[in-house]
Amino acid sequence: MTKIIECKIIELPKVIDHRGNLTFIEGKKHIPFDIKRVYYLYDVPGGAVRGGHAHKKLQQLIIAVSGSFDVIVDDGYDKKRFHLNRSYYGLYVPTMIWRELDNFSTGAVCLVLASEYYDESDYIRDYEEFLRLARK
Ligand code: TYD
Predict the structure, then answer these.
(1) Fewest 10 Å CB contacts: which of 4, 57, 62, 127?
(2) What is the mean pLDDT of residues 11-34?
(3) Burial 2-25 (b: 16+ CB within 10 A, else e)
(4) Active site residue 18
(5) Number of domains in the chain
(6) 16 CA distance to ligand 1 centroid (A)?
């Protein structure tokens, strides 16, 4: 059963204003989970690759709040590359998806909204183990 179709771009509300635009996100309203944690990647050096893991329970929304980067999602059967370059689009990543982030532009900021607190035991960091679990 392929899960890759569950990885979707969500268009977020955008309040257009000549003083500057505004986007907001409410848990369970604009995204399918409550937000327990927020983190962000910044000062990413050229050529760097982040991610390289999957989560058993955690769901995420990944947003390029500034600049751009790619997210490659993999459900153990299929892979898909998303290019994120707008502050009002988020990529929803459900459970049990291997993700990698690359192609970061200069000054890119990757904002992540997460459904769970940080818990290392929720991570699958070994790709062979991920394939075993994903293909069960
Ligand atoms: P990691 O999840 O491997 O980074 P990424 O997937 O974005 O490339 O996290 C890198 C380090 O930061 C790792 O030692 C765990 C720590 N960390 C926290 O302590 N809390 C957090 O919420 C996150 C996301 C990471």
Answers:
(1) 57
(2) 98
(3) ebbebbeeeebeeeeeeeeeebeb
(4) no
(5) 1
(6) 33
